Inverse folding.
């Protein structure tokens, strides 16, 4: 398949590209290295079926050129400003990096005749729902972060483009995706800070925030499974696991994995139920629809956290990430 | 109350301004005359408590100046590119005129400390729902027009701003609002075309498209009622009537009101179930929440259509509208 991949140097793409190349896809990747990392791309750059283009997706002309050259059968649009707290400090951050970028991708698809899109949305769209675990048909959709507001805006742009221009789309509302090659996130953050200063760890909130952590391989297999098996024009699925892991559990596991003496680490909490404004402290996503489709994650949240911490610690220690 | 009013020369504002002024509000109106009309403003321009500013809401600086001067207690954000079919021809039309404009309004509120917003959303957000009449908690929200996609994007921006910057908002998902001083819409369109050429009327679709038509006074009273009585941080309500009127019924009523001989009017249909791509042919909005709050519309859809046709025909004949 011919594939356009946005966010090509990001966390998800770094784990996705080897799979796409292994099964024979021709991959046209785009990144501006805002969150994505040059070093993560290096594994793929030498591959004859991987083509990389460095520019900001807010720029329409180079995007049109990529689509003209790629003539993609499928677009993996996984570029995102996935640092939610950022969007509260800079109120146009997600509007530009999420909504306008997604519009540009859809418009490039429309103009070039590309028809199929996979999109990484987020369980954050539900805001603070009154129904937990939260199913896909929960409403009204009233998010509490600008990040999530932008994800909804992207979903609805996709839905409208699909209906007006005969496209098809697969929208996945993610739990917290974790695994090797992180660019940010709580595990990356805790490991990095404890390696720099093993004597203390500051935790935002009271540590009871709990979310379903999904291993990145499960996430990617889930998206591929959904793409193959869900056959509506617009397919919208929660992609998560049934259990949750708390921030305190993650902190303790990171301390243990690093081999630190727990009594010598001063763990202190900033307090309050959420890590930051716009943070949804308790997330449970109903995955009935994905499992009814036949998909099952291999790892629970607890297992995904355990494995990821080991991998991220190893990657920090070997210098793969920094 | 000090009020900022967007879309001040548009259909809803033209009917709203006299009410606001009559009860003592200081009104700061903004319009760029894209859909709004200078002639509609004339009634209000001479009033000492009405202040008008002409610019495009995509421009941030004049908007900031209006908010600095107005220091509004309440923002009525009813500016909209309410011509749905336009958004299919120009794919960035609603993104700019809806989403980005609403972001600008919210950002002006945040920077100036304004805290309360009334927003005119649309029942079109539900796309083609499987539940009819459709309640506010229907999901997933997968609209079929770029107009509706933008309305959802606006709703979610509002929700995120409310949660992050301690605002409050009242979001109303409208049925088709009709009444005097129209700028567009099926009644305006049919009256105008039959006055120009009484021998024929072309109808988009098969004429069976049926929607709840809400008289503009009911709509305005409903928004005011909701603002007074709904006390959540984000309040999201369908604002409609229980019955529907079909396009064919409207066409027949316009022909009758104009006193035309029905046998001499060649009414022909373009065919198909919808008027245009992105048109939702059958709309029924569940108004249980608004009625539970204590609100009741005075006019049914049938009565609203009847009264509006009489008023619009009279306004065309007297030269108030053209």
């Amino acid at each position: 398949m011919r594939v356009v991949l946005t966010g090509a140097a990001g966390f998800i793409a770094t784990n996705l590209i080897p799979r796409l190349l292994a099964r024979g896809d021709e991959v046209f990747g785009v990144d501006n290295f805002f969150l994505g990392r040059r070093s993560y791309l290096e594994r793929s750059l030498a591959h004859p079926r991987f083509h990389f283009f460095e520019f900001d997706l807010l720029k329409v002309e180079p995007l049109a050129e990529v689509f003209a050259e790629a003539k993609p059968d499928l677009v993996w649009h996984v570029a995102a400003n996935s640092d939610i707290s950022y969007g509260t400090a800079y109120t146009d951050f997600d509007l530009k990096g999420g909504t306008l970028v997604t519009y540009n991708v859809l418009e490039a698809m429309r103009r070039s005749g590309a028809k199929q899109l996979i999109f990484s949305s987020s369980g954050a769209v539900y805001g603070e729902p009154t129904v937990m675990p939260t199913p896909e048909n929960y409403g009204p959709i009233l998010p509490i972060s600008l990040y999530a507001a932008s994800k909804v805006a992207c979903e609805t742009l996709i839905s409208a483009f699909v209906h007006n221009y005969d496209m098809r789309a697969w929208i996945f509302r993610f739990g917290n995706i974790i695994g090797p090659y992180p660019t940010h996130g709580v595990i990356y953050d805790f490991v990095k800070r404890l390696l720099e200063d093993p004597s203390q760890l500051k935790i935002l909130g009271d540590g009871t925030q709990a979310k379903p952590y999904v291993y990145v391989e499960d996430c990617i297999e889930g998206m591929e499974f959904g793409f193959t098996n869900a056959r509506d024009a617009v397919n919208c699925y929660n992609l998560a696991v049934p259990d949750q892991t708390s921030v305190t559990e993650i902190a303790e596991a990171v301390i243990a994995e690093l081999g630190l003496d727990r009594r010598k680490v001063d763990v202190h909490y900033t307090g309050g139920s959420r890590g930051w404004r716009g943070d949804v402290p308790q997330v449970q996503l109903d995955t009935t629809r994905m499992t009814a489709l036949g998909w099952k994650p291999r790892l629970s949240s607890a297992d995904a956290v355990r494995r990821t911490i080991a991998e991220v610690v190893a990657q920090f220690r070997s210098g793969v990430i920094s």
Q: What stands out?
A: The mean pLDDT of chain A is 96. Residues 93-112 of chain A form the longest helix (20 residues).
